Amino acid sequence: MAGGSDARQCRRCERNFPLDAFAKNGNRDDGLQVWCRECVAEYGAARYRRRQEARGKPVREKVDVPPGHKLCRRCGEVKPHSEWHRKATASDGLSTRCKACRAVRGRQDHLWRKYGITETERDELIASQGSVCCVCLEALPVHVDHCHKTGRVRGVLCFSCNAALGQFKDRPDVIRRAATYVEGNAWKPTLVAPGVYQLPS
Asked: Quick check: is 189 in a domain?
């Protein structure tokens, strides 16, 4: 050890650093790595570069990131730590993708998991509807509608129409009676026995 008990020399670059410049290593007597953190990072970057080049894959270049910020590899933007979700198992305590990218991925995963379609397929469906809700033919379609029995996607509806179908529990007979009622032809059931009603034909 060189430079006193509170410092040591890196075996790679042979410079003296305080002890906190060395990562921990439980296999060594003093509990510290023999290379400083900077040398370990350089070696890891060079090894990563060689491995990527051998696989024929692109090499991500190192980006200078100011303190309190992190680079999102998905969108390529440097954002403050407030734009990241916490992740206790990560080395920096932050998620690998920023909140915005996680939200986009979350929507994609939801479409595929629940409806079995991609965002591209949903957008094609909206275009085939003329970019309006299938039911009211007015509002913007934002909610994928599907049959709860078969799982088949029927179309993309606006919020109100999607909620209305849900309230009617997807029952065509109830929806027909509601339409008749709205048109002014109320279906008034006739009591034919205690607790038994007959609907008009």
From this structure: yes
Same domain, 136 and 194: yes
pTM of the model: 0.52
End-to-end, the C-alpha distance of the chain in Å comes to 98
Residue 89's domain spans which residues?
Answer: 69-102
Q: Is 126 a member of any domain? A: no
Picking from 115, 192, 189, the residue whose alpha carbon sits closest to that of residue 155 is: 115
Q: Is residue 116 part of a domain?
A: no
- 126 within 8 A of 141, measured Cβ to Cβ: yes
Rounded to an integer, what distance in angstroms lies between the CA atom of residue 157 and that of residue 140?
8
Cα-Cα-Cα-Cα dihedral sign, residues 81, 87, 93, 94: negative
DSSP secondary structure string for all residues of 88-155: TTSTTSB-SS-HHHHHHHHHHHHIIIIIS--HHHHHHHHHHTTSS-TTTSSSPP-EEEE-TTT--EEE
Question: What confidence tens digit (pLDDT) does each residue in 100-150 have?
Answer: 999 999 989 999 999 999 999 999 999 999 999 999 999 999 999 998 889
Q: Identify the CA nearest to 39 among candidates 23, 19, 61.
A: 23
